[in-house]
């Protein structure tokens, strides 16, 4: 499975990563060889096999709908790189 | 002899009799860290002040209470992907270099309730992605048996800290072998519990359907005691199993007569170093002499496990790591004109190459047009791997094989070839895909480096693997060997 540089750049964009020219070249090579290796799975006929997403059968967890104390705003913002007026601050999205 | 070479029950007795204090234990740990940490580099953070204060508080508790927990006063290392309130938790990543959690993982709370003392946070491959601890953003860790070699990964710091007697025990996490492989490389005991037995609340997620926290210890008895405190239902973890927790200690009798052991030919075949295989055959002889019976079996889909894992784990990782965007926590780039650029620059500056590689791989495997060919296909092969195990466990009590096909590799040897690094995990990965419990225990040395023996059990049957591992340990001396912490 040979990936093109363009495909690698497209995937990087989807993953919200900016790659240097060197990284694009390296990942094109490495991802191609890993995906080649993954082709091995095609040796198996899995048409009638059900997929397993979890090793154990688990069901959802529910609790009573009770009002409980939440963490303070100050605490929630404690690790924020930037904040203003009790909110997370990010570069503006809309112009003007 | 180090205080850390005393059995857990002896420490407990001496603390109860007031012949020893928790403060003595902490000082022992800090003294050893001062001696060897410059060479081993197992820690990302050593919190002397917190540890000394905790020890003092426990000593005060001991003075007034008869009810002393079995883990009381034991210095431990905690892998840096387990969140600890108010104590920096970085996952060995630049993107979390300044992160101080505002809550604690359930396992950490259980350890504190059990009166263990955290000495510090241990080094790891960034976000637990890697098999050597060379992928830490801060520094590699080194194998105490030979400092030119890796300690394994991704819980390499935890394993090295236990092997070098810097702590009494440590917590690690295992997604594709990250507890067992470093335990094997450093000659200690590493236990990956059944998926769901130990809470993952507060474990920074890598691949949520595979991750599991477990103990790294010097011997099997210690592993059983730590597991006893770790295991149990947690309503904060939606994948926590609501099962009753058995007594893990009483079955450690040394008796295993009649135990049925399956030896998969795929675990002993080509690719396994002949010297490692030799150690396995010696180990089988020990089990035979103890009255266990073994037969060769086949797990035919073993050869597909690594490819399955390297589609599934990166897919889950690409989703889990989407949260690192520089908005709510972690480090943010200082030069971005707009929001999308801020996300991209923050992530590109914050993540190391192995993490980027896996995020890219996962994003690709989950993307439109490729989902069925990769992700769904791998989920189906996962079913076949799981069924292989179910067939064997219908007839046998446990599965036996090496933990890793080789001993530790040299620092730098595999770092430039990710695929070569990935196939190193061929014998540990199937266990995570099937959610089974497994233990790695020392089985001797080859060229001065430890070899690990892996025992795999049925879901929630930690008792059998611990019982068998303990019996083996009682009739061998491998776990008593200590590394010299030296080069060459």
From TrEMBL, chain A:
Role noted for this protein: Allows the formation of correctly charged Asn-tRNA(Asn) or Gln-tRNA(Gln) through the transamidation of misacylated Asp-tRNA(Asn) or Glu-tRNA(Gln) in organisms which lack either or both of asparaginyl-tRNA or glutaminyl-tRNA synthetases. The reaction takes place in the presence of glutamine and ATP through an activated phospho-Asp-tRNA(Asn) or phospho-Glu-tRNA(Gln).
Name of this protein: Aspartyl/glutamyl-tRNA(Asn/Gln) amidotransferase subunit C
Domain of life: Bacteria
EC number: 6.3.5.-
InterPro entries the record matches: Asp/Glu-ADT_sf_sub_c, GatC
Keywords: ATP-binding, Ligase, Nucleotide-binding, Protein biosynthesis, Transferase
Gene Ontology biological process terms from the UniProt entry: glutaminyl-tRNAGln biosynthesis via transamidation; regulation of translational fidelity; translation
Pfam family, one: GatC
Oligomer and partners: Heterotrimer of A, B and C subunits.
Catalytic activity as recorded in UniProt: L-glutamyl-tRNA(Gln) + L-glutamine + ATP + H2O = L-glutaminyl-tRNA(Gln) + L-glutamate + ADP + phosphate + H(+); L-aspartyl-tRNA(Asn) + L-glutamine + ATP + H2O = L-asparaginyl-tRNA(Asn) + L-glutamate + ADP + phosphate + 2 H(+)
Keyword Nucleotidyltransferase: no
From TrEMBL, chain B:
Stored Pfam families: Amidase (PF01425)
Catalysed reactions, as listed in the record: L-glutamyl-tRNA(Gln) + L-glutamine + ATP + H2O = L-glutaminyl-tRNA(Gln) + L-glutamate + ADP + phosphate + H(+)
GO molecular function: ATP binding; glutaminyl-tRNA synthase (glutamine-hydrolyzing) activity; transferase activity
GO CC terms, sorted: glutamyl-tRNA(Gln) amidotransferase complex
InterPro entries the record matches: Amidase (IPR000120), Amidase_CS (IPR020556), Amidase_dom (IPR023631), AS_sf (IPR036928), GatA (IPR004412)
Keywords of this entry: ATP-binding, Ligase, Nucleotide-binding, Protein biosynthesis, Transferase
Enzymatic class: ligase
E.C. number(s) listed in UniProt: 6.3.5.7
List of catalytic residues: 79 (charge relay system), 154 (charge relay system), 178 (acyl-ester intermediate)
SUPFAM superfamilies per the UniProt record, alphabetical: Amidase signature (AS) enzymes
UniProt domain Amidase: residue ranges: 24-466
An annotated GO BP: translation
Superkingdom assignment: Bacteria
Function: Allows the formation of correctly charged Gln-tRNA(Gln) through the transamidation of misacylated Glu-tRNA(Gln) in organisms which lack glutaminyl-tRNA synthetase. The reaction takes place in the presence of glutamine and ATP through an activated gamma-phospho-Glu-tRNA(Gln).
Protein family: Belongs to the amidase family. GatA subfamily.
Subunit structure: Heterotrimer of A, B and C subunits.
Stated name of the protein: Glutamyl-tRNA(Gln) amidotransferase subunit A
Upper lineage: Bacteria, Bacillati, Bacillota, Bacilli, Bacillales
Gene that produces this protein: gatA
């Amino acid at each position: 499975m040979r990936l093109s540089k363009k495909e690698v750049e497209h995937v990087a964009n989807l993953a919200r990563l900016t790659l240097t020219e060197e990284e694009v070249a390296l990942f094109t090579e490495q991802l191609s060889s890993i995906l080649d290796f993954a082709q091995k799975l095609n040796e198996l006929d899995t048409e009638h096999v059900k997929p397993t997403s979890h090793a154990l059968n688990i069901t959802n967890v529910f609790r009573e709908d009770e009002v409980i104390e939440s963490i303070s705003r100050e605490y929630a913002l404690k690790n924020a790189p930037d904040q203003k007026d009790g909110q997370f601050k990010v570069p503006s999205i809309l112009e003007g | 002899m180090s205080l850390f070479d005393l059995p857990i029950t002896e420490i407990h007795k001496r603390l109860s009799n007031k012949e020893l204090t928790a403060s003595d234990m902490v000082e022992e740990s800090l003294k050893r860290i001062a001696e060897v940490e410059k060479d081993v580099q197992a820690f990302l953070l050593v919190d002397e002040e917190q540890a000394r204060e905790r020890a003092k508080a426990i000593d005060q508790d001991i003075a007034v209470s008869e009810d002393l927990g079995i883990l009381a006063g034991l210095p431990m290392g905690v892998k840096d992907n387990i969140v600890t309130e108010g104590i920096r938790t970085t996952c060995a990543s630049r993107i979390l270099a300044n992160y101080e959690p505002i809550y604690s993982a359930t396992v950490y709370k259980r350890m504190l309730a059990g009166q263990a003392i955290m000495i510090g946070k241990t080094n790891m491959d960034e976000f637990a992605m890697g098999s050597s601890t060379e992928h830490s953003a801060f520094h590699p860790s080194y194998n105490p048996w030979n400092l030119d070699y890796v300690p394994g990964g991704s819980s390499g710091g935890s394993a090295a800290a236990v092997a070098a007697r810097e702590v009494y025990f440590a917590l690690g996490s295992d997604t594709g072998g990250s507890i067992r492989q470093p335990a094997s490389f450093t000659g200690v005991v590493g236990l990956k519990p059944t998926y769901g037995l130990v809470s993952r609340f507060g474990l920074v997620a890598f691949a949520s359907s595979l991750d599991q926290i477990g103990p790294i210890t010097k011997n099997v008895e210690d592993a059983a005691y730590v597991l006893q405190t770790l295991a149990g239902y947690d309503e904060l973890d939606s994948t926590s199993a609501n099962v009753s927790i058995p007594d893990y200690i009483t079955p450690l009798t040394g008796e295993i007569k009649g135990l049925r052991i399956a030896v998969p030919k795929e675990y002993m075949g080509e690719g396994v170093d002949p010297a490692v295989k030799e150690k396995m055959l010696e180990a089988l002889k020990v089990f035979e002499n103890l009255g266990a019976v073994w037969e060769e079996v086949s797990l035919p889909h073993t050869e597909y496990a690594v490819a399955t894992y390297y589609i599934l784990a990166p897919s889950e990782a690409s989703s889990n790591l989407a949260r690192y965007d520089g908005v709510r926590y972690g480090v943010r780039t200082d030069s971005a004109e707009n929001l999308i650029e801020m996300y991209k620059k923050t992530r590109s500056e914050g993540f190391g190459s192995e993490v980027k590689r896996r995020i890219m791989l996962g994003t690709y495997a989950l993307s439109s047009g490729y989902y069925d060919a990769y992700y769904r296909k791998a989920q189906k092969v996962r079913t076949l791997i799981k069924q292989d195990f179910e067939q064997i466990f219908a007839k046998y009590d446990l599965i036996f094989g090496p933990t890793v096909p080789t001993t530790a590799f040299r620092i730098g040897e595999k770092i430039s070839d990710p695929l070569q690094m990935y196939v190193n995990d061929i014998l540990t990965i199937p266990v995570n895909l099937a959610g089974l419990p497994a233990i790695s225990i020392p089985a001797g040395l080859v060229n001065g480096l430890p070899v690990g023996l892996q025992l795999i059990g049925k879901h929630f049957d930690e008792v059998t693997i611990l019982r068998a591992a303990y019996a083996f340990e009682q009739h061998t001396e491998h776990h008593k060997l200590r590394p010299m912490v030296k080069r060459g």
